[in-house]
């Protein structure tokens, strides 16, 4: 049986606390490590199992203009269409630097080779599926197409 990395086995709230504390300890700010959730806002299904979707933007310490554009467009995509889900805590927008030791495992966890957008579904505290949004790099010069692609991908996970 394949075991999941420790961070993916943690409850969503524990993950958020871990990210927030790590960011603050490193002098981070809401600009670079933003998380939108609270225990009371995470929705539950009919059995009481917590679930949520996280759209991660992973980047390294050195960032080119294209990397910054991908982050900006992705933020605009989720905040523009999924404000209610962000406010409810069923969708989280999280930006993480994979060059920081506590985030380095994500490179292996999701098979990342560069800055990446990854949609992850968490059910009952477990990451049950994910999708690396590979087309983000090819669509970055087509803002409407990029936003439609991200919104469509996130929307599929929120169904």
Describe the structure.
The protein is α+β, with helices and mostly antiparallel strands and 159 residues long. The chain has a single domain, classed as Glutaredoxin. 42% of the residues lie in helices and 19% in strands. Strands 2-1-3-4 form a 4-stranded mixed sheet. It is globular. Mean pLDDT is 77; it is low at 1-49.
Corresponding CATH architecture: 3-Layer(aba) Sandwich
**What is the CATH level 1 assignment?**
Alpha Beta
Unreliable spans are 1-49
The CATH topology corresponds to Glutaredoxin
Helix count? Answer: 7
E-strand count: 4
Strand content: 15-25%
Distance between the termini: 28 Å
Supply the number of structural domains.
1
Order of helices and strands: HHEHHEHEEHH
* Helix-strand category: alpha+beta
Q: Supply Rg.
A: 15 Å
Order of strands across the widest beta sheet? 2-1-3-4
pLDDT averaged over residues:
77
Shape: globular
CATH superfamily: Glutaredoxin
Instruction: Please summarize the sheet with the most strands.
Output: 4 strands, mixed
Helix content bin: 40-55%
Outline:
This protein is α+β, with helices and mostly antiparallel strands.
Features:
159 residues, alpha+beta, Glutaredoxin, four-stranded mixed sheet, 7 helices, globular, disordered N terminus
